[in-house]
Amino acid sequence: QVQVVESGGGLVQPGGSLRLSCAGVGFILDYYTIGWFRQAPGKEREGISCISSSDGSTRYADSVKGRFTISRDSVKHTVYLEMNSLKPEDTAVYYCAADAGYGCFNAYDYDYWGQGTQVTVSS
User: Fold this and answer.
1) How large is the average pLDDT for residues 25-42?
2) What is the pLDDT of residues 74-107, one digit of tens each?
3) Do residues 77 and 63 touch, judged by C-beta distance below 8 A?
4) Cα–Cα distance measured from residue 72 to residue 56, given in angstroms and rounded to the nearest whole number
5) Residue 6 pLDDT greater than 90, yes or no
6) DSSP letters spanning 31-85
7) Is 90 exceeded by the pLDDT of residue 1?
8) Cα separation of 105 and 71, whole Å?
9) Which of 32, 38, 59, 86 is most open to solvent, judged by the fewest CB atoms within 10 Å of its CB?
């Protein structure tokens, strides 16, 4: 059975940091483009970052650029999203997704999705 599993969410104060992890079950994450999406209550799902399987190139949405960093550990077959300088507006359920192709911010490009992990930024 193929699964994507996220972890690392939680409650953090404004200005704080969190690191989310994304792992694959039943498949090797390294061969997929991995994207991070988030969805806040009442809002559409937003693509925020992706990392290519071919050359490791990364992209970021303007809303997180300069604060979030996506990276891939090929030994652990895990993708991370390091989130710094968190703001209350970053509060959302964060999803990891795997794409066998070359998509990034379009959710329809992705083949496998995780269940999501809640990130809450509040004092």
Assistant:
1) 94
2) 999 999 999 999 999 999 999 999 999 888 999 9
3) no
4) 8
5) yes
6) GSEEEEEEE-TTS--EEEEEE-SSS--EEE-TTTTTTEEEEEETTTTEEEEEE-S
7) no
8) 16
9) 59
